[in-house]
């Protein structure tokens, strides 16, 4: 265990030195993702991360001539892990918001989908602060959805979970009245599965950029502008040469880049 | 060192701390009742009493608390999800709004867990009673129940108190796990604030200090109780142990 | 196993999790024993500074919940260390503390405090006469420790250490919070992917129970070996 620590410290220092000197050759970039937000990112039975984000990430790395490695990280600790240099970029449907921009940098968006509420079938709700007073709302901790709910529905009981899946499970169990999350993640990742038969999307789509930002972007540590620029160039490239559309169509039958309505 | 996060949210920290103490108190009380019953069952010569008690104690002491918590909370959640008619029934009899919350499940898990550990501690206490006292009680003609009430249990509690104190402190610290099933105890509040402000270091140190302070307050309280109950073991007044000695004993 | 209950292909992840759990447990136990010996030496030493350090160590570690310490070490410490080292060396330093190392170190430090108490009691239980005799012969402190103190203290320490081990191996389940791929985490992933929480968590609990039973049997054997030649009261 001490050997492992020493070895990883040594490897880390070597990596830092090597990464600093590499220029024309393939730059090694570690990308962090959550692995618990299907269809964007999830872990298949063999333990590999798969999903829209991963395909986009690999395409971007190919376009930017990076050698990319994927690291799984719980959503809660995404930004601290980025700052602790466990990885160099986050591609995990992290929305570009002003609050986050205070501590990290973002590239331009690579997808944008609205948020919606989900509830068990056959219920009616009044989506105003008073209409949802006393209701139990659930979502994932450290998300824009949590911030939105805390700021807009102060009279409701808000419960936060480590992963979206746990929130969905509690909705199915009847412990929650409503769940707020990305509408595509809810639809493709839960409602279309066998266990999603209980529930349906309800209410209006939410896209107010004050809480929901300008879409999902790639998160980079503050100040690393060359990496931000490289990714921005790569995003433009895959949008133009059709790679983006190919990956888009593999997962969705609509344009996930940024249609405001759904 | 950015302490503004802590100062701005001090009200949340306070409510979290109060909730933690509340969960601890209820769990300890429920767990104690359970532990008492289990200890007596475990010591019984009847197989249908001691076998289930032994199995229960073995299971709850041999598996981690976190696993138990997930099992009970998400396991029962799965049951609710698969059987909506049960939910409708519970709604009809009016307990659904209570059972929707994670709070009773957390209490249940903690009580079941501390009940198992407490049972072993009380059993150790009962087995530590000098046999002479039991013989004397029988010689006086006390019935089993009377003997239990007047001799065995009071004596056992005094013997078991130090070990039980450790268990209470452990339960207090174990409440930090209920944050994982969405209860906004002190750790839960801290996790939400850390994720929003990224001031991980400052917040966790602050939370650590609070837990430490309350843990030692509990220890001190129990040591005072021990002091009160061990009068018969101490020397006469004049040569008595001073409360200051209790303090040094606590810090050790 | 796959034929009896339908685990949908996730059965092997539980076994993989057990392997990691045991690995973390053993490594952390080694660290805990080392910290325990250090701590006990500190508490029993004549130097006031050593005593204060050792006491502060046990007081802090026993007063703060494990979950809080783990989150503090994993999230807070990494950033702090990086800031410090960057300040000191003037350049960007990369410290990658993976979940395994973080878990081992944190658990080792936490249970080192418990091991400290065990060793302290064990060292105090060695009959004073033996130590006096050794000093009288002229043994220096290191020889005394190696030849007289440690072999005998080991016998007294074993029951306590056995208990620390049992608590430690269960505490590895907390490592799931920092995404170490140990048993509970793998059960978690499997449960969520298949929406069968009860099955997977119950199986995981049975695995832990198995580890506990094996540990208790092992402890019994080792205690029997350590107590060889000692007359039973």
Q: Give the count of helical stretches of chain A.
A: 10
Return the string of H and E elements of chain B: HHHHHHHHHHHH
CATH T-level fold name of the largest domain in chain A? D-Maltodextrin-Binding Protein, domain 2
What is the residue-averaged pLDDT of chain A? 83
Shape of chain B: flat
Number of domains of chain B: 1
Rg of chain A computed from alpha carbons, rounded to a whole number of angstroms: 19 Å
Assigned CATH architecture of the largest domain in chain A? 3-Layer(aba) Sandwich
How would you characterize this protein structure?
The complex is a heterotrimer of chains A (262), B (252) and C (233). Chain A has 262 residues and is of the alpha/beta class. Chain A has helices at 2-21, 52-64, 78-83, 98-101, 144-152, 164-172, 183-191, 209-212, 225-240, 243-251, and strands at residues 27-33, 36-37, 41-43, 49-50, 66-72, 89-95, 104-111, 115-120, 136-140, 157-161, 178-182, 199-206, 216-221. In chain A, the strands form 3 sheets. In chain A, strands 5-1-6-13-7 form a 5-stranded mixed sheet. In chain A, strands 10-9-11-8-12 form a 5-stranded mixed sheet, sandwiched between helices. The radius of gyration of chain A is 19 Å and the shape is globular. Mean pLDDT of chain A is 83; it is low at 16-24. Chain B has helices at residues 4-8, 10-43, 47-62, 65-82, 84-92, 96-99, 103-127, 131-140, 144-174, 186-197, 200-229, 243-251. With 252 residues, chain B is mainly α. In chain B, helix 3 crosses helix 7 (103-127), helix 4 (65-82) packs across helix 7 (103-127) and helix 7 (103-127) packs across helix 9. The relative contact order of chain B is 0.13. Chain B has 12 helices and no strands. Chain B has one domain: MetI-like (MetI-like fold, Orthogonal Bundle), CATH 1.10.3720. Chain C is mostly helical. Chain C has helices at residues 11-44, 48-63, 66-89, 99-125, 128-137, 141-171, 183-194, 197-226. The longest helix of chain C is centred in the N-terminal third of the chain and has 34 residues, at 11-44. The radius of gyration of chain C is 21 Å and the shape is flat. The termini of chain C are far apart. The model of chain C has no long low-confidence stretch (mean pLDDT 84). Chains in contact: A-B, A-C, B-C. Chains B and C meet through helix 3, helix 4, helix 9, helix 10 and helix 11 of B and helix 2, helix 3, helix 7 and helix 8 of C.
């Amino acid at each position: 265990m001490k050997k492992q620590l020493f070895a990883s410290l040594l490897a880390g220092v070597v990596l830092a030195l090597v990464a600093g000197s590499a220029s024309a050759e393939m730059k090694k970039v570690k990308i962090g993702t959550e692995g618990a937000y299907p269809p964007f990112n999830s872990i298949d039975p063999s333990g590999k991360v798969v999903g829209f984000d991963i395909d986009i990430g690999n395409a971007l790395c190919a376009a930017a001539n990076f050698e990319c490695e994927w690291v799984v990280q719980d959503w809660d600790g995404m930004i601290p892990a980025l700052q602790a240099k466990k990885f160099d970029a986050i591609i995990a449907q992290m929305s570009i918001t002003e609050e986050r921009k205070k501590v990290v940098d973002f590239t331009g968006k690579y997808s944008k989908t609205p948020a919606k509420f989900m509830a068990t079938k056959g219920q009616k709700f009044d989506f105003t602060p008073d209409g949802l007073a006393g209701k139990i709302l659930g979502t994932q901790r450290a998300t824009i959805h949590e911030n939105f709910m805390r700021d807009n529905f102060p009279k409701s009981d808000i419960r936060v979970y480590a992963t979206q899946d746990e929130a969905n499970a509690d909705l199915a169990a009847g412990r929650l009245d409503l769940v707020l999350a990305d509408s595509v993640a809810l639809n493709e990742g839960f409602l279309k599965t066998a266990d999603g038969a209980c529930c349906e999307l309800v209410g209006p789509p939410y896209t107010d950029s004050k809480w929901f930002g300008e879409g999902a972007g790639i998160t980079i540590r503050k100040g690393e502008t060359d990496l931000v620029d490289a990714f921005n160039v790569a995003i433009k490239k895959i949008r133009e040469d059709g790679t983006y559309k190919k990956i888009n169509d593999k997962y969705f039958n609509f344009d996930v880049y940024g249609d405001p309505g759904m | 060192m950015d302490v503004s996060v802590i100062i701005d949210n001090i009200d949340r920290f306070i409510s979290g701390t109060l909730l933690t103490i509340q969960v601890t108190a209820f769990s300890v009380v429920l767990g104690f009742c359970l532990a008492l019953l289990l200890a007596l069952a475990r010591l019984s010569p009847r197989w249908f009493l001691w076998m289930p008690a032994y199995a229960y104690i073995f299971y709850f002491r041999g598996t981690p608390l976190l696993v138990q918590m997930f099992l009970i909370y998400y396991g029962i959640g799965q049951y609710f999800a698969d059987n909506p008619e049960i939910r409708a029934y519970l709604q009809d009899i009016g307990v659904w709004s209570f059972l929707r919350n994670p709070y009773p499940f957390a209490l249940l898990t903690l009580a079941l867990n501390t009940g198992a550990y407490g049972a072993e501690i009380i059993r150790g206490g009962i087995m530590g009673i000098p046999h002479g006292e039991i013989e004397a009680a029988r010689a006086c003609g006390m019935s089993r129940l009377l003997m239990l009430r007047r001799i065995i249990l009071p004596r056992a509690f005094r013997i078991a108190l130090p070990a039980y104190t450790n268990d209470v402190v452990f339960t207090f610290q174990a409440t930090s796990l209920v944050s994982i099933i969405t209860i906004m105890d002190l750790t839960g509040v801290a996790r939400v604030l850390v994720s929003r402000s990224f001031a991980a270091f400052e917040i966790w140190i602050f939370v650590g200090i609070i837990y430490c302070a309350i843990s030692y307050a509990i220890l001190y309280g129990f040591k005072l109780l021990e002091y009160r109950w061990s009068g018969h073991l101490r020397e006469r007044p004049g040569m008595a142990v001073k409360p200051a000695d209790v303090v040094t004993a606590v810090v050790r | 196993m796959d034929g009896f209950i339908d685990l949908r292909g996730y059965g092997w992840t539980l076994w993989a999790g057990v392997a990691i759990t045991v690995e973390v447990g053993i490594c952390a136990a080694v660290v805990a024993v080392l910290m325990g010996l250090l701590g006990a030496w500190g508490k029993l030493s004549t130097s006031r500074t050593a005593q204060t350090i050792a006491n502060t160590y046990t007081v802090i570690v026993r007063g703060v919940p494990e979950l809080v310490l783990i989150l503090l070490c994993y999230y807070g410490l990494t950033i702090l260390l990086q800031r410090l080292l960057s300040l000191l060396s003037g350049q960007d330093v990369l410290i990658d503390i993976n979940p395994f190392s973080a878990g081992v170190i944190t658990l080792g430090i936490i249970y080192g405090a418990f091991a400290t108490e065990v060793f302290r009691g064990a060292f105090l239980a060695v009959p004073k006469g033996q130590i006096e005799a050794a000093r009288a012969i002229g043994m220096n402190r290191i020889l005394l420790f190696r030849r007289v103190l440690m072999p005998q203290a080991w016998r007294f320490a074993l029951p306590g250490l056995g208990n620390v081990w049992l608590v430690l191996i269960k505490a590895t389940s907390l490592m799931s919070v920092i995404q170490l791929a140990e048993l509970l985490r793998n059960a978690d992933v499997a449960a969520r992917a298949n929406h069968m929480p009860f099955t997977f968590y119950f199986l995981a609990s049975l695995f832990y129970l198995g580890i506990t039973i094996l540990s208790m049997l092992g402890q019994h054997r080792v205690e029997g070996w350590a107590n060889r030649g000692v007359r039973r009261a």
